[in-house]
Each structure stands twice: as structure tokens, then as C-alpha cells.
Design goal:
The longest helix has about 35 residues. A hairpin with a 6-residue loop joins strand 2 and strand 3. This protein has 14 helices and three strands. Strands 1-2-3 form a three-stranded antiparallel sheet. It is mainly α and about 375 residues long. Helix 7 packs antiparallel against helix 8.
Length: about 375
């Protein structure tokens, strides 16, 4: 009996735990809390008479998210496989709830659901992202080699469309809708070795984007306020007090930071000059206070995070585990790239948060749950297989 216990203990000790991944996530969370306090203390005091108002709310979400991450990391990831279809349906059902009395409106957008008794709101789009990762991972496994065919490709792309459509039409959240579609494309890209269709799709998307920009520039109003965003992106100085205001203020913050920055807490743009300083535009404050050095350091941390996930995906015990990690990796990569691209005026303003750093309870909580799934997959990797 004692020999069996020793053998079992030895077998368990051979399994892998990615402490590097955990350290990177904790660093980004800690850095995010510091930057949220720095970026929001002035506006929080003006509005709530409490400089730490946003920090406290974010800290609650981080603590709850870490607790959920630990729980998920200790549950075998195959346990969630049976809930894939249910998660898809729940995500689809939650989105219209924002139109009910439980819906919460903020900054002209109705995208959140109030949770009684908890000082934070639930954003259904965040639920949809993790539900879509789980659903598509199961779908890839069920389809097997069929995912490499055109029929399989179309199936993988079609299933996210209803959820993405709901998010765009009901909550007017184009960025989250695009992220869900991007997650699907990345997962099927990894699962299928035939890249011709992806090249064709990329060319079609680029042509469509060019057509949209041409129509907007020529004066077409078919995109309504989104057309104004594109115009202000192309020439922010054409309307510096309205549509181009946030873009210009963000660029001022980045430019004034120089190489080393003004110093932590020394930003001028956060003093009611830059809208959403603690949310979508927090990267501008990082650039202003910590300079190019701080911005590059954060980008390198994200690259290291994605690299660790890639290692876990490559060594996952099975296809389902690998696809789960690929989905999470795609989500974080796309969201980080889009946020930095928006802040630096590389693409039009879409209103998207920087993972783990921007203020947002739902976002950080569900990102940590996704990290829990990645750690669960990593724990099932045997060291001898690395």
C-alpha cells in the first residue's frame, strides 16, 4: 500500500506547472492596479470624493478573478467540455438582458447587467468570449480532419456569427463582435494546415475595409457615427473638439512622455483632458508617465505571456487542451493589439480595453478565468513530454 502511495506521489510530481505564466499575469495585474490608481485618482476625487474609488472596485474584481482562476486551474479542463453547448446558449441569452431593467447604461452605451449585492456589473460580451472559446474547441475536436475542408471552415466561422451579431446589434459593441470573430478565425487557422483560404479571406477583408474608407471619405453616411470615427481617425485635427478629441489627447500624452516619461503619477492628460484615461486609453497614460521604456516593457510582457501560452499549446496532452489555449491566446493577442493600435491612432477608435491593465471588472475577471483554463491544461503536461 505504501509503495502505491509513493508511486502515485512520484507520478503527480512529474506534472508541469507554469510559474512563469502565473508570474507574468500577476505582474500585469499589479501594474494595472497601480496605473488605474494613477490614471483615475483625479477624476475619482472630483466625482466621488475618493481618489481610490476605481482602484477599490478593480481590486474586488481582481481578487474574485484570482479566486476563480485558482478553482478553474484545479479542475481537469475536460470537465468543461460537457458545458460547451450550454455556455453558447447562455451567452446568446444573456446579451438581450441588457435591454431589460437589469441593463446598465454608461457613456451612452447599454452593455452591462447589474448584479444585485455585488459592486460590479456583468458584461455579457465577456461571457460570450470564453463561451465561444470553449464551444469552438469542442467543435474542432468533434469535426476532426473535417475542419480542414471548406465545409468545416465555413462551419467554424458561421457558429460565432449569431453571437457576434447580437453583440453588435444589441449592445453596439463592434470591438467585442470583431474579437469573437477573430478568435474563431485564429482557432480554425491553427487547426487547418491549408492557408490558401485564409489568404483569400484576408484579401477580401482588406478590400472591404478599403471600400468602407473610400465611401466614408467620399461623404457617404451609411455608417452613421462610425463613419465619423473613421473620418476623425484619418484627420483628427478636422474636428479637434469632438470626434478627434480623444485621439489627439492620447497622441499628446504619448508624445509628451518621451523615452523615460514624466514619472509615475505626473501625467497632465489625466486631469480631465483625456477621456477614459483609466479604461481604453490607459496605454497613453503609461506612455506619458513611463515613456517609451514603460510602453516597450509592457509590450514585451504581453509577448512573453503569449509565448508561454504557445509552449503550453504545443505540449498540451490532447487537441481539446491545445485548442482551449489557442483560443485564450488569440483573445488576449487580438485585444492587446487592437487597444495599442487604437491608442496610437493606427486604426479607428473602437473602444477596447487593454487586457489585465485597463479598468473593467468583467473583463479582468473573465480573463483570469481563461488563464485558469490555460493553467489547467498546463498542469496535465508531463515533464518528460516537454
Amino acid at each position: 500500500m505504501g509503495t502505491r502511495r509513493r508511486a502515485k506521489k512520484k507520478e503527480q510530481s512529474e506534472y508541469f506547472f507554469d510559474y512563469s505564466l502565473l508570474f507574468i499575469v500577476l505582474f500585469l495585474l499589479g501594474f494595472g492596479l497601480v496605473m488605474i490608481y494613477s490614471a483615475s485618482s483625479y477624476s475619482a476625487f472630483e466625482e466621488y470624493k475618493d481618489t481610490a474609488y476605481y482602484l477599490k472596485r478593480q481590486l474586488i474584481a481582481v481578487i474574485l478573478g484570482l479566486a476563480l482562476m485558482i478553482v478553474v486551474a484545479n479542475i481537469p479542463y475536460h470537465f468543461w467540455e460537457r458545458f460547451a453547448t450550454l455556455g453558447y446558449l447562455v451567452a446568446a441569452a444573456l446579451i438581450p438582458v441588457v435591454l431589460t431593467p437589469l441593463g446598465v447604461e454608461s457613456h451612452g452605451a447599454r452593455r452591462w447587467i447589474a448584479i444585485p449585492g455585488i459592486p460590479m456589473n456583468l458584461q455579457p460580451a465577456e461571457v460570450a468570449k470564453i463561451a465561444m472559446i470553449l464551444f469552438l474547441a469542442v467543435l474542432v475536436c468533434k469535426m476532426g480532419r473535417g475542419v480542414r475542408t471548406m465545409k468545416g471552415f465555413i462551419t467554424m466561422v458561421v457558429f460565432p456569427l449569431p453571437i457576434a451579431g447580437e453583440i453588435y446589434v444589441i449592445t453596439k459593441n463592434m470591438s467585442s463582435a470583431l474579437i469573437i470573430l477573430a478568435i474563431a478565425i485564429i482557432m480554425v487557422f491553427v487547426a487547418s494546415p491549408d492557408y490558401k483560404k485564409f489568404i483569400i479571406m484576408a484579401l477580401i477583408v482588406l478590400a472591404a475595409a478599403a471600400l468602407v474608407i473610400y465611401l466614408v471619405v467620399s461623404g457617404s453616411d451609411f455608417l452613421e457615427f462610425r463613419g465619423n470615427r473613421i473620418r476623425s481617425w484619418l484627420d483628427p485635427e478636422s474636428d479637434p473638439s469632438d470626434t478627434g478629441f480623444q485621439t489627439l489627447q492620447g497622441l499628446y500624452a504619448i508624445g509628451s512622455g518621451g523615452i523615460w516619461g514624466k514619472g509615475l503619477g505626473q501625467s497632465m492628460q489625466k486631469l480631465n483632458f483625456l477621456p477614459e484615461a483609466q479604461n481604453d486609453m490607459i496605454f497613453s497614460i503609461i506612455c506619458e508617465e513611463l515613456g517609451l521604456f514603460g510602453a516597450v516593457a509592457i509590450i514585451l510582457m504581453f509577448i512573453m505571456l503569449l509565448w508561454r501560452m504557445m509552449i503550453i499549446a504545443n505540449n498540451a496532452p490532447d487537441l481539446f487542451g491545445a485548442m482551449l489555449v489557442v483560443g485564450v491566446m488569440g483573445h488576449i493577442a487580438v485585444q492587446a493589439i487592437l487597444n495599442i493600435a487604437v491608442v496610437t491612432a493606427t486604426i479607428p477608435n473602437t473602444g477596447i480595453s487593454l487586457p489585465f491593465i485597463s479598468y473593467g471588472g468583467s473583463s479582468v475577471m473573465f480573463l483570469l478565468i481563461e488563464i485558469g483554463l490555460v493553467l489547467s491544461v498546463a498542469r496535465r503536461i508531463q515533464l518528460k513530454e516537454l
